[in-house]
Amino acid sequence: MEPVMVDGHLDLAHNARALGRDLSLPLDRLREVDPHPETPLVSLPSLREARVAVAFATLFVDPREGGQADWQEEVYAQLALYEAWEAKGWVRILRESEDLEAHLSRFPQDLTLGLVLLLEGAHALAQPKDLIPLRQRGLRLLSLTWATRNAYAGGNAEEAPLTEAGKALLRKMEALGVALDLSHLAEEAALEALEAFSGPVCATHANARALVPSPRHLSDRLMEALRERDGVLGLVPFNAFLDPNWRRGDPRLPLEALFRHKAHAETLLGPERVALGTDWDGGFGLEAVPLGLDRHRDLWVLGDEGFLGGNWLRWLRAWF
Ligand SMILES: [Zn+2]
Questions:
Q1: CA-CA distance, 248 to 255, in Å (whole number)?
Q2: Mean pLDDT over residues 18-34, rounded?
Q3: Alpha-carbon dihedral sign for residues 224, 144, 15, 109
Q4: What is the domain-level CATH number for residue 66?
Q5: If you measure from the C-alpha of residue 279 to the centroid of ligand 1, how many angstroms do you get, rounded to a whole number?
Q6: Which domain holds residue 75?
Q7: Residue 211 alpha carbon to ligand 1 centre in Å
Q8: Using an 8 Å Cβ cutoff, are 201 and 179 in contact?
């Protein structure tokens, strides 16, 4: 079988809804019509041409805006959008283990993107049992917060520990078969969550804090803890996440900037646990990614089939 790509983090529904992007367009066409200053990196055809077999697709709301009812409404609207795409045959939502295997056997013929649904930040859950209806509609991955401190845990922008409600949510995830994404958690909360949670863990999109000193990225200690749990880290090819000195408007970085994070993460996690989590079009565009990477198909120049897809597939098959 020809190698396939897996992307551990894409905010597809957010792009479609908040930015009004028609992701069914070929990427070059989307670039012509898109009014935003950031040039888009992703459309469904650009994922298809790159043989992206699986993407972890987010349900994302910015918790700095609105309140609980708004967040819940938006999460369900994004879920409904993915379901509408599925009804049109544009994607397949992978809800259960048999979906994953059936998808992977069909993918070489039809190149239809498979989605693993990820709730990015649990702000929309008023209580842990609110996870149940989302799981029934296919959710398999959850990060406790996005940047801020919420009822469940501290985030990368607001340090705080894991709460009792956070522990209750982790127990609900274990019972329902929902994996934990450590991205955006405060370090303290992430280490506590690893203690409290016995299910599968990963970090869908983060880089090495040793190279970019920000709580948004994984410390060496957290990488070692992730390795002990056989978790996978998805690296983000975003210049500000690769080099702390890069600023918006600066020239694009060379690919070596990504290789430095990959080498560091591979030393701590083992090469089989380091993968891709592009987060492309998650708040930045073409101007902010390394030179030579203009769309997903360009990632194949990295030439590492495990990093580009096999490592996430192995992780998924172990628990999904
Ligand atoms: Zn995201």
A1: 17
A2: 98
A3: positive
A4: 3.20.20.140
A5: 6
A6: 5-319
A7: 21
A8: yes
